[in-house]
Write a structure and sequence with these properties.
The protein has about 600 residues and is of the alpha/beta class. It has three domains: about 10-325, Up-down Bundle (ABC transporter transmembrane region fold); about 345-425 and about 510-590, P-loop containing nucleotide triphosphate hydrolases (Rossmann fold), CATH 3.40.50.300; about 435-505, P-loop containing nucleotide triphosphate hydrolases (Rossmann fold), CATH 3.40.50.300. The chain is built from 21 helices and twelve strands. The strands form three sheets. A six-stranded mixed β-sheet has the order 6-9-10-3-11-12, sandwiched between helices. The protein has a four-stranded antiparallel β-sheet with strand order 2-1-4-5, covered by helices on one side. Strand 4 and strand 5 (about 415) form a beta hairpin. Helix 5 (about 125-165) crosses helix 11 (about 310-325). The protein is elongated. It starts with 11 loop residues before the first helix and ends with a helix. Bound molecules: adenosine-5'-triphosphate.
Length: about 600
């Protein structure tokens, strides 16, 4: 695993275009929200005129309460309408952001599924999780606050200018010339702030990977008494992250201060000029008061744009990570326009073929090479070989985890393409060395394989896997909650639940990695019988370490240095006195 090296600074314009394209998922909601916000601003302008004219009437024309009562009622109605509009506008923009985030997560997960687990392993689980969770969350403020504030910063000042110019063109000119100062300053600090934000985001990815690894290996760290050392390292990385965050905050506070200062100075300038003109009688009170009321409102959207600028920077940094995942090429997919696997049976296959499979890990000579295999649709195939021989890699290729080589697989004479991978995986039940069990009930973990499974089917699968007895002995049976990664169950129990889940799927191909490890001999016998039974009418491919499994296989494939070097039935291979013979002998010696 590597710690997510960030891409070479992805072009900012590309990132902006990417974020803009994704806003299309909720384009109309965003437009409605902005329209409501702008209408709210128009009501604010009307209120300012009403307030100014009411005060003018009372102060300079001695109007009584009855005269200004209709204005006061209108003002109250306007205030109420503005509160409602503001509420709706904010809710709608938050809903739009939620919609975009959901679509984005969906797109990212789809791409990650296509890229396969090897991509996540290379780039780090922590960093990928960070992109999927924190990264996507960082887009919330971008879409809910920053994007609407960009529109408001153009629309609201424009609307105010349009009413101020006919009222008092001199004040209009002051507004017009002071307004660009704020965006100008933002652009000035923007570039540096963007750089710092990207650095901070990289640190967060490093921290994410580091934490993920250490939390997963906490037990080992404790056993090796290495927690203190690791804590020091975590403190160091956290400190780097703290520094990066502080640099971003420093520039954010500084720029906020400068923007507020500029806005305040501009309002003050308008106020002083209005004051002088009122004093010298070159301006009537009502007009002067309207300008004074509208001055802060004129700069408000620009100030808000400044305060949401941080959301934009976060959004851009997060988008760089997402774009990196989405732009990752899925190598070798030159056959994606085919009809797909629709006509392939979900119950049985006749033949599975691997033609000239060569796969190497990135930047490495390790992998599998020159693999040519034919499996019939039924029977048990055992893969054996020393550690590092390439057994897991071969199964990973078969499972479609390395999409670039999936075209070397033929099922019932149909060559697979990358667009077939998710469909292909529905034809396979897979039990890895460490099966994944989720923090949920046993039942929920089992029905992952078959959501519409009946209780009878659940019980039958559990019985087949030798798991029914211990599940029934649990206080709540199938409804017993298990912890994360099967916490609360023994290694063998976890394995049997995973096996039951695989049996429940009734997939035409069952792929297993050391299924009988962690099992006592009685359960092992039971599970072995169940697998043999399953192999009668399904294809079962197993990485076998136990002699018992190897002996019962229809075919044994012996691997060495990434290649299949021997292949045949157990007895025939044993008589050849080749590698299988040596492996079996070595194992018997170990067992003695
Ligand atoms: N992600 C990876 N990146 C680079 N090399 C890898 C990676 N995973 C495995 N390898 C290398 O590929 C070779 C085959 O590994 P593989 O895990 O397939 O062996 P195996 O036969 O399943 O071993 P074991 O029985 O110990 O699980 C090994 O030399 C291993 O070091």
């Amino acid at each position: 695993m590597t710690t997510n090296p960030q891409p070479k600074r992805v072009q900012q314009t590309t990132l902006r275009a990417f974020l803009k394209t994704h806003s299309n998922h909720a384009g109309s909601l965003l437009k409605i929200s902005i329209a409501l916000g702008t209408f709210n601003a128009l009501l604010m302008i009307t209120s300012a005129y009403l307030v100014a004219s009411s005060i003018h009437l009372v102060m300079f024309q001695q109007a009584d309460l009855a005269t200004i009562t209709p204005s006061l009622w209108s003002l109250a109605a306007l205030i109420l309408a503005r509160a409602v509009l503001l509420g709706f506008s904010q809710r709608i923009s938050a809903k739009a952001a939620l919609k975009i985030k959901t679509a984005m997560r969906h797109t990212l997960l789809k791409k990650l599924t296509l890229l396969g687990p090897s991509y996540i392993e290379q780039h780090g689980h922590g960093a990928t999780l960070n992109t999927l969770h924190n990264g996507v969350e960082a887009l919330h403020d971008y879409y809910a606050n920053y994007l609407p504030s960009v529109a408001y910063s153009a629309l609201i000042p424009l609307a105010i200018l349009m009413v101020i110019f006919p009222t008092d063109w001199k004040a209009g000119l002051i507004f017009l010339f002071t307004a660009p100062l704020i965006p100008f300053f933002m652009i000035l600090v923007g570039h540096k702030a963007e750089q710092l934000n990207q650095q901070r985001w990289q640190q967060l990815a490093v921290l994410g990977n580091y934490f993920f690894d250490r939390v997963q290996g906490l037990t080992q760290l404790k056993l090796f008494n290495a927690t203190k050392r690791e804590l020091k390292q975590i403190a160091k990385i956290s400190d780097d992250f703290r520094h990066a965050t502080l640099s971003v905050l420093k520039i954010a506070f500084l720029s906020s201060f400068a923007l507020e200062f500029l806005a305040t100075i501009s309002v003050a300038l308008v106020a002083v000029i209005i004051g002088f003109r009122l004093f010298f009688g070159t301006l009537d009170f009502a007009t002067g008061f309207v300008v004074l009321l509208l001055a802060p409102e004129f700069y408000l959207p620009l100030r808000q744009l400044g305060s949401h600028y941080h959301a934009k920077l976060e959004g851009i940094s997060a988008a760089a990570d997402m774009l990196k995942i989405l732009n990752e090429p899925i190598a070798g997919d030159n056959n994606s326009s085919r009809a797909g696997l629709s006509q392939l049976s979900l119950e049985r296959i006749e033949q599975l073929q691997i033609d000239n499979l060569n796969f190497y890990y990135p930047d490495s000579n390790e992998g599998v090479k020159n693999i040519n295999l034919t499996f019939s649709g039924t029977g048990l195939y055992a893969i054996i070989g020393q550690s590092g021989a390439g057994k897991s890699t071969l199964l990973d290729c078969l499972l479609g985890f390395h999409p670039q080589v999936v075209t070397t697989i033929k099922v019932d004479q149909q060559q697979l393409s990358q667009s077939d991978i998710s469909q292909w995986q529905q034809h396979i039940a897979w039990i890895p060395q460490q099966p994944t069990l989720l923090f949920n009930t046993i039942k929920a973990n089992l029905v992952l394989a078959k959501p519409d499974a009946t209780t009878a089917q659940l019980e039958a699968a559990a019985k087949q896997a030798g798991a029914l007895e211990f599940i029934n002995a649990l206080p709540q049976g199938f409804d017993t909650h298990i912890g994360e990664q099967g916490e609360g169950l023994s290694g063998g129990q976890k394995q049997r639940i995973a096996l039951a889940r695989a049996f429940l799927k009734q997939a035409p191909i069952l792929v297993l990695d050391e299924p009988t490890a962690h099992l006592d001999s009685q359960t092992e016998q039971l599970v072995q019988t169940a697998i043999n039974q399953y192999a009668k009418d399904h294809l079962v491919v197993v990485i076998a370490h136990r002699l018992n499994t190897i002996e019962q296989a229809k075919q044994v494939l012996v691997m060495k240095d990434g290649s299949v070097i021997e292949q045949g039935d157990f007895k025939g291979l044993l008589n050849q006195h080749g590698v299988l013979f040596d492996l079996v002998n070595a194992r018997s010696t170990q067992n003695d």
